[in-house]
């Protein structure tokens, strides 16, 4: 680690500086306080990291502006968020620690077949998830993406694999939930549109029934089902110039292939605590918690 350097662009002299991570804080501490503050302000406003830079784990906390990603007025940004950003708000991923819930694998309570076989068990599982998600609050990562949406407006496409509503709570107004929404339900029989529903159906509660006689199910894309809004998603992927994945595992399709879809023509950036399974496809990795990295990640050119 000590032998590696982070390369960043100093816009003032227009040259590249190589800074040893371990020496950075010590060298900066020698600057007079006023001069140091002035230089930090200037760098925050003017400096953007090279799109090919690999960010060293932990280095972003030493000089926070080194991890900035430049966004121009012509850029269209696609952000994909995964379970990692919600985990920072206390929502379990269910894929960690063996991916078990009461001796059941998530796949056993999250499929159409499971719902047909035992709808009560499935509703008990999703009722528990609703209770957990209802108690969660957005973290600084969610808030940073909401601010990005305010700044970029329709040049930001925010797509999430998460079924909670933490992005909306943070203030994001246009969120594509490709795996559905936990606080919505729909009929498994008729074409009644999905509707807001925060109720829980745990024993001895009865399983909800539609007026058509069909059973009400969570509005979730289960294993074996086609994710929602894929036409919009692939249209946005085709238009984006910057692709950012936040807290994704890189293992769940089709989302894991989004980066490969844009690779070669868009900057591809990963933000999360550890390398994803598809890390080879990213030109830039920022390793750490989204709540710590996202608030200072973007700068405008």
CATH architecture of the domain at 92-135 and 183-220: 2-Layer Sandwich
- The total of helices stands at 12
How would you name the CATH homologous superfamily of the domain at 92-135 and 183-220? Answer: SIR2/SIRT2 'Small Domain'
- The string of secondary-structure elements, in order, is EEHHHEEHEEHHHHEHEEEEHEHEEHE
User: What is the oligomeric state here?
Assistant: single chain
Describe the structure.
- The protein has helices spanning 21-29, 33-46, 59-62, 83-87, 106-109, 112-117, 119-135, 140-152, 166-170, 230-239, 258-262, 290-293, and strands at 6-10, 15-19, 69-71, 77-81, 100-101, 104-105, 156-160, 175-177, 180-187, 195-196, 216-220, 242-246, 267-272, 284-287, 298-300.
- By secondary structure, the protein is an alpha/beta fold.
- It has a domain at 92-135 and 183-220: 2-Layer Sandwich (SIR2/SIRT2 'Small Domain').
- The chain starts with 5 loop residues before the first strand and ends with a strand.
- Mean pLDDT is 81; it is low at 1-66.
Outline the fold blueprint:
Layout (H helix, E strand, L loop, with lengths): L5 E5 L4 E5 L1 H9 L3 H14 L12 H4 L6 E3 L5 E5 L1 H5 L12 E2 L2 E2 H4 L2 H6 L1 H17 L4 H13 L3 E5 L5 H5 L4 E3 L2 E8 L7 E2 L19 E5 L9 H10 L2 E5 L11 H5 L4 E6 L11 E4 L2 H4 L4 E3 L1
Parallel strand pairs: 3-15, 4-7, 4-12, 7-8, 12-13, 13-14
Antiparallel strand pairs: 1-2, 5-6, 9-10, 9-11
List keywords for this structure.
301 residues, alpha/beta, six-stranded parallel beta sheet, three-stranded antiparallel beta sheet, 12 helices, 32% helix, 21% strand, elongated
């Amino acid at each position: 680690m000590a032998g590696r350097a982070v390369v960043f662009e100093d816009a003032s002299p227009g040259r590249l500086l190589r800074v040893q991570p371990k020496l950075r804080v010590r060298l900066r501490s020698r600057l007079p306080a006023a001069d140091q503050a002035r230089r930090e302000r200037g760098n925050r406003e003017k400096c953007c990291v090279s799109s090919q830079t690999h960010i060293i784990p932990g280095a972003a906390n030493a000089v926070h502006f080194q991890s900035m990603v430049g966004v121009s007025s012509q850029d269209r940004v696609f952000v994909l968020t995964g379970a990692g950003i919600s985990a920072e708000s206390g929502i379990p991923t269910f894929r960690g620690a063996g991916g078990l819930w009461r001796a059941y694998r998530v796949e056993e309570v999250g499929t159409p077949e499971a719902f047909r076989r035992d709808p009560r068990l499935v509703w008990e599982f999703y009722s528990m998830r609703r209770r957990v998600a209802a108690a969660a609050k957005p973290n600084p990562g969610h808030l940073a993406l909401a601010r990005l949406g305010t700044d970029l407006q329709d040049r930001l496409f925010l797509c999430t694999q998460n079924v909670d509503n933490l992005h909306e709570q943070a203030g994001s107004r246009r969120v594509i939930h490709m795996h559905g929404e936990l606080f919505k339900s729909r009929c498994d029989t008729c074409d009644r549109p999905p509707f807001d529903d925060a109720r829980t159906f745990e024993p001895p509660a009865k399983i909800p029934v539609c007026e058509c006689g069909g059973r009400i199910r969570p509005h979730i894309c289960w294993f074996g089902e086609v994710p929602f809004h894929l036409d919009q998603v692939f249209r946005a992927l085709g238009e984006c110039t910057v692709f950012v994945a936040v807290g994704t595992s890189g293992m769940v399709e089709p989302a894991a292939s989004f980066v490969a879809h844009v690779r070669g023509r868009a900057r591809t950036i990963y933000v999360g605590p550890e390398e994803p399974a598809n890390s080879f496809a990213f030109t830039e990795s920022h390793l750490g918690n989204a709540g710590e990295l996202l608030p200072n990640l973007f700068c405008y050119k």
